[in-house]
Amino acid sequence: MNTMKKLGIAALLLAMAFAFAGCGGSGSEGGDDEQTADKTEVKVFAAASMQSSLEELEKSFEAENPDVDILLNCDSSGTLMTQIEEGAPCDVFFSAAQKQMDELEEQGLVKEGTRQNVLNNQLVVITQPDSDTAVTGLENLKDAKSIALADGSVPVGKYTRQALINLKILPEADDPAAIATQEVSDALGGVEISEQGNVSKVLTAVEEGSCEVGTVYLSDTYGHEDSVKIIEKVPYEVTGDIIYPIALINNPDGTVAEVDAAEAVLDWFTGDDAKALYQEHLFDTNVE
């Protein structure tokens, strides 16, 4: 392995350490190292839109399984897929779209027989509660003064582009995710678009007022009812289903305890109690 590649992997692992520290992971919130040294760690990579739900499930799982420490890494599914491809340690992947899981499965990185579809979501257009925006939905998005939009590698950005294609606002494309943000702006008459790296950043941009409108998932508005207003719930006929798959990731270096713990976490995240929580957080669990 050459020096540059070694440095690249080292940088990735350092970045992952910061990511785990910043997203869930009760074992990373302080406490005595001796208390966690004998715990089995399960590294979960999850779409940013899953963060609040999984943080609750993490706490309940660890309360019943004190010998296991779940480490959550929440970001865009595209970013997480790349991290896994580049060798970042991961045991469970919960994606906001099928595409990223498909690509990992094609590379043999998904543990056979563990993949399952868990949730459906819905694209929504949001603004601030007191906004006087002229925008009433995707069809007149061009009337916005500014838009927060995830890039195409982020599932919510891809679904927004697909919806704009189906509404004849964007031209047909083999891969909607490949449509550049500038192309979207041009199709909307040159409206200012602030490109964001994941759905949580889109939500924040609208909440803080730096952008007039944005597109997020319905589930992202849970707990933010006082800071954002839904302008439109985009019909599934326009976006297609927004399916969230989960699976175990092959970890050739995993111990028996780690593999068993990862399987238990996957079961916990897909069980009846978890589905009830997802529904509370505005996800649809009626998935075939």
Task: Describe the 3D structure.
There is one protein chain. With 288 residues, the protein is an alpha/beta fold. The protein has 2 domains: 155 residues, Periplasmic binding protein-like II (D-Maltodextrin-Binding Protein, domain 2, 3-Layer(aba) Sandwich), CATH 3.40.190; 111 residues, D-Maltodextrin-Binding Protein, domain 2 (3-Layer(aba) Sandwich), CATH 3.40.190. The chain has 11 helices and 10 strands. A 5-stranded mixed beta sheet has the order 2-1-3-10-4. A 5-stranded mixed beta sheet has the order 7-6-8-5-9, with helices on both faces. Strand 1, helix 3 and strand 2 form a beta-alpha-beta unit. The N and C termini lie far apart (44 Å).
Strand content: 15-25%
Total helix count?
Answer: 11
What general outline do the C-alpha atoms trace? globular
* CATH class bucket of the largest domain: Alpha Beta
- CATH topology of the largest domain, anyone? D-Maltodextrin-Binding Protein, domain 2
Uncertain runs are 1-7, 24-35
Order of helices and strands: HHEHEHEHEEEHHEHEEHEHH
Helix content: 25-40%
Total strand segments: 10
What is the distance, rounded to the nearest whole angstrom, between the alpha carbons of the first and last residues?
A: 44 Å
- How can the largest sheet be summarized? 5 strands, mixed
What is the residue-averaged pLDDT?
A: 90
Kindly report the spatial arrangement of strands forming the biggest sheet.
2-1-3-10-4
Second-tier CATH architecture of the largest domain = 3-Layer(aba) Sandwich
Count of the domains? 2
Gyration radius, to the nearest Å?
19 Å
Output the structural class. Answer: alpha/beta
CATH homologous superfamily assignment of the largest domain:
Periplasmic binding protein-like II
